[in-house]
Amino acid sequence: MKNKINYSKSQLIMLVILRVIIGWLFLYEGIVKLINPAWSSFGYLMDSQGFMSGFYKSIAANQGVLDIVDIMNIWGLIAIGLGLILGCFAKIAKIAGIVLLVMYYLSHPPFFGLEYNLPTEGNYLLVNKILVELFTLAVLLVFPTSKIIGFDRLIFKKKNKCF
Predict the structure, then answer these.
(1) What CA–CA distance (Å, rounded) separates 26 from 18?
(2) Of 39, 26, 140, 152, which is closest to residue 81 (Cα–Cα)?
(3) What is the pTM of this model?
(4) Closest Cα to residue 25, out of 104, 90, 82?
């Protein structure tokens, strides 16, 4: 038996808008990094604090690894953003986005006693914009809309017809 997703019109509209908005955040961040030839995650990684800081600083210390991480970060942001905006392989985009945001959060956790050299957008304790974005993707993961409004509707409809 196939599960049918039933949202009210307003629920569907708001969930799709939320998916597109968070997709835009990812896409824009990736494009800004792509077009800026001087961008590198070096400063961000070296500013890492908390129990994972050694891992992040070791990435920054190895230029070859740093170059790979920078490319993966840029193109990951772009792919996640496009996947969310277009509703194309959106489940994969949401999971990848969650993983990426967990990595960002662990690099700069908003915990007691940690101070960062890089400026932040506010004063946080435990919950910051990264965690909010992470849980937004988690909500979107359990309320999928791309098979209703998005390219996943076409992709998975054709796939189901073959079986």
Answers:
(1) 13
(2) 26
(3) 0.89
(4) 82
